[in-house]
DNA sequence: CTGAAAGCGCTTACAG
DNA sequence: CTGAAAGCGCTTACAG
C-alpha cells in the first residue's frame, strides 16, 4: 500500500481520472497514454485500493459463504471443502473474492446474514444449508439480496438453489440393494431437520413401492445425519431383534459406524448384510470392505452455486433458478453379495 | 443497505459526527443522545457501511487465508477445515472476517498474496503452507506485512508461525512401534517439499538411533504426503523383498492405502505388520483395524495462528513469535501386536 | 481524448 | 458535549 492513483497520475503527467480510465480499459484513452500509464504502474508496483474502488462502485466483488459450523460438524465433512473449492474456483475466474463465515446456530446465522447483507461488504451470499426451517432464506428473499442456497430449500420455487436430486439418489441406491437380493433394508440417519435425508428416504420408499416391498417403519432409524453415530443407529436396529439383509446410511460415516457394529456382532458385510452410504468420502474406497456410495460431485455443487449467483448478477430479468447436479452410484464390495 | 449515517443523523437531529461517535462508544457523547441515536438505529435497521468505514480507518478487519488447493488435495484433507474453523472461531470473537483464497500453484500464490497485501483488502494474512521453498514468505517479510504461517518454515526465526513439534511426533510414534517389538520400521511418504514430512522422518531416525537400531534407507519411501498413494508406497517396500514388522505413514490416508495392500498380500495388521499414521482423521477410529495415529489438534493450530496475528497487530514492539501446539499419540489396534 | 469536480459513506482532528 | 470540514482513494457524469 501507499502508492495511490494520484502518485501514478503525477508521475505520468495526467489526471487521476485518466489513470482510472486506463486501468478500466476505457476505450476513450489513447493507446499512447495507456501504455505510458501501465509502464509507470508496473514500475511503482501500484495496486488499486480495493476498498476505495468498492466504495465508489457500490460493489465489492466479494461473495459471502455462510456455513453451519461446529454444531453439525458439517465443516469437518469432506464434502464441505469440496463445495468451497468449487465456489472458489469459479469465483476466482470471475474476479470475485470469498468471505467465509462459520456460524454455530440459526441465531448466529441470522445475525451474520444480517450483517453481510446490510453492511455492504458482500455482493451476494451463498448459504450452505439444507435445513427445513431456515429463517435466513425468507429474510434474504424479503430484502431481495442476491443469494444462492446449496441444498434444496422448502420453498424451492422462490429461491436460487443447487442440489443433487436426492430423491432419485435414494431411489437408485435402494433399487441397487433390491437388485442385490435385499428385501428388508434398514435406512439409517433420517433427520427431520435436513431435507436431504427426507428426500433420500422418499426415494427409498418409492423404490420399495415399485418393487412391491412394504415399508417397515421399524427399519427406518432417525439420527444425526453427519456424524459418527452409525454404530449406535445400527445397534438400535439389531436391538429390535431384526437383522436386515441390507442397510442404507444417509452418509458414509454412518455406514462405517454401522459396519463396525455389525462386525462386532459377528455379521459379515456384504454376505450377511449389504451396506451402503452416500457422499462417497475419500476413504470409502479404502475401507474394508470398500463401501458402495454415491458420488454427489460436491465440487460441481459449489461451482454451479457461484455460476447461478453470477447469472443473477448479470441479468436484468429476475428469475428463480435451480441447478441439479448429477450424482453417480459407485458400487463397491460392501453391497456385492456372493 | 440504503440507510446511511446521514439518515440517522437527520432523524436524531444531530450531526453525522455525533452518530459516528455514539456508535464507536466515544465517551464524550451524552448518555441521552446516545440512547436516542441507538433507538433510531434500531428502528431504521441501520448497519454502518463496512467499506466506507474501512476506507476511513485504513483497516478492514479482514484477514486473508491462503491455501494451496487443488494440486495437493490439502483442501480435501480433514485437517484443513479444522484449521479454518479454528481461525474463524478466534477471528469471530475479535470481530474479524476471513477472506479465503485457494491457490493452485506457487505462482498463483504469489499473485494472490501480492494482491491481498497491496490492495488494502486485508489487514493480515494467514498462510497454510509448510513448503520448504515458499517465495511468498520472504515477500511478506520484505514488505513487512502482518502474517502468520501455519507450518514451520525454513527460516523459522524471522517469521510468525504455528505448528506441532513434528520431530517429537515422529520420535514418539517410532518409539511406540519399537516398544511394540518392531525393529524394521518402514517410513512412508517423505516428501522433500514438505518440512512436516522431513521433521517426522528426523524424529524417526532419532528414535532409531536412541534404540541402537541402524537406519535402513530401503525402508524409507518417498511419495506424496497427502494423497491416496499409500497402496503404491507399500507395494514399493514389499517389492524390494522386505516385509517390515512396522510401518509409519506420514498421513492416515497413506496408512489406509498401505493396509489395503498388506491385506491383499495376506499380511495381517497388526500381527504381521503394525501400521500407524498421523493426523488422526475422523475415520481412523472406524477403520479395520482402528488406526494408531497422532492427534495434531488442527483446530488449535488455526485458533493459535489467529491469536498470533492479533498479538502482532496489538503490540508496538516487533517480534517473531511461534507457538507449538501439543500433539497426542492415539494408540489403537493397528499397532497392538498380540 | 482528457480534466476538474462531485460523490461513495464513513472517521476524526480541530474548534467551540 | 457537539458540529463543520477535511480526508480516506477511488469512479464517473459533465464539460471541453
Automatic annotation (TrEMBL), chains A, B:
It comes from the Bacteria. Keywords: DNA-binding, Transcription, Transcription regulation. The keyword Transport does not apply. InterPro entries: HTH_LacI, LacI/GalR-like_sensor, Lambda_DNA-bd_dom_sf, Peripla_BP_I. It holds the Pfam family Peripla_BP_3. Residues 3-57 form the HTH lacI-type domain. GO terms for molecular function: DNA-binding transcription factor activity; transcription cis-regulatory region binding. This is Transcriptional regulator. It comes from Clostridium thermosuccinogenes.
